[in-house]
Amino acid sequence: MKNEKDNEDKKDETEPDASQHGITRRGFLTTLGAGAVTLAVSDKLHATPAADAEMIARGEMTKVVLNINNRSYRLLVEPRWSLLYVLREQLGLTGTKVGCERGECGSCTVLIDNAPRYACMTLAVEAEGTKITTLEGLMKGEELGPVQQAFVEHDAFQCGYCTPGQIMAVEGLLRTNHDPSTEEIRYGMSGNLCRCGAYKHIIKAAKKAAELKDQRKYIVPSSTPYS
Ligand code: FES
Ligand code: FES
Questions:
Q1: Which of 89, 94, 102 to mutate to test the pocket of ligand 1 (most atoms within 8 A of CB)?
Q2: Mean pLDDT (whole number) for 116-135
Q3: How far is CA 79 from CA 43, 148, 164, in A?
Q4: Is the pLDDT of residue 24 over 60?
Q5: Distance 42 CA to ligand 2 centre (A)
Q6: Which atom of ligand 2 is nearest to the CA of 196?
Q7: How far is the CA of 164 from the centre of ligand 2 (A)?
Q8: pLDDT at position 216, please?
Q9: Which of 48, 83, 116, 174 could covalently link to 52 via disulfide, CB atoms 3.0 to 4.6 Å apart?
Q10: What's the whole-number average pLDDT of the chain?
Q11: Are 46 and 74 a contacting pair, CB within 8 Å?
Q12: Tens digits of residue pLDDT in 164-214
């Protein structure tokens, strides 16, 4: 399983090199968002035949309903599975990245009831009854969300590996603070590491995202994603 993750992540990291074949980094970011949305609409409903029922009875699997990006997913999961594992490996929502898997880097940041959370430190079963938002949920059709757009405009990434987590952290910040100061942005982003050191541009992008959200009237009341 680890090797599969490694391979997939390696694939993600090597995609930007496709710029040599006519795909820019910016185009890659757009493609990443759009592709993931396509995956998100292929709902995964897991039947529970007799074998599943036996596993449930033995406590090896449990039924869970997860609300992700305003869609309900009925799943059978092992109680030990992290939300990160379920998003990526069970649902194909690979916009959420795997980094340290121990709550240190922020690559796996998603929103749970509008608050940034580490998906690697959250059990899937814990997330039942909440509203989960992933990077894919920030798109409006094929249009980038304001935070994604601001990151592109300010070139707020280099290798791009931390970028989905950074975007989700900014999104979470702006859902509670519509006009954060630089210090508030620094504090809000303090759980997200960037090994490339793109922090200066990330802060500019966060400020720009606040403006864009205001212009597009995308300020989100309660827990309703863009729609
Ligand atoms: S992968 Fe979750 S915090 Fe690093
Ligand atoms: S852009 Fe490379 S780790 Fe942040």
A1: 102
A2: 98
A3: 21, 33, 26
A4: no
A5: 30
A6: 2
A7: 10
A8: 62
A9: 48
A10: 81
A11: yes
A12: 999 999 999 999 999 999 999 999 999 999 999 999 999 999 999 999 987
- At 172 the three-state DSSP class reads helix
Residue having the nearest C-alpha atom to atom 3 of ligand 1: 103
Q: What is the mean pLDDT of residues 36-49?
A: 44
Phi, psi of 117 (to 5 degrees): -140, 150
- Ligand 1 contacts (CB < 6 A) are 98-101, 103-108, 118, 120
* Pair of tokens at residue 46: 């897991």
Residue type at position 140: K
40 CA distance to ligand 2 middle (Å): 25
Question: Which three-class secondary structure string do you get for 31-63?
Answer: HHHHHHHHHHCCCCCCCCCHHHHHHHHCCCCEE
Q: Which ligand is nearest to the CA of 201?
A: 2
Q: Tell how far the Cα of 113 is from the centroid of ligand 2, in angstroms.
A: 26
Please state whether beta strands 115-118 and 109-112 pair in parallel, antiparallel, or not at all (unpaired).
antiparallel
Residue 47 φ/ψ region, left for φ over 0, alpha for ψ in the -120 to 50 degree band, beta for the rest: beta
Among 135, 137, 140, 170, which Cα is nearest to 154's?
Answer: 170
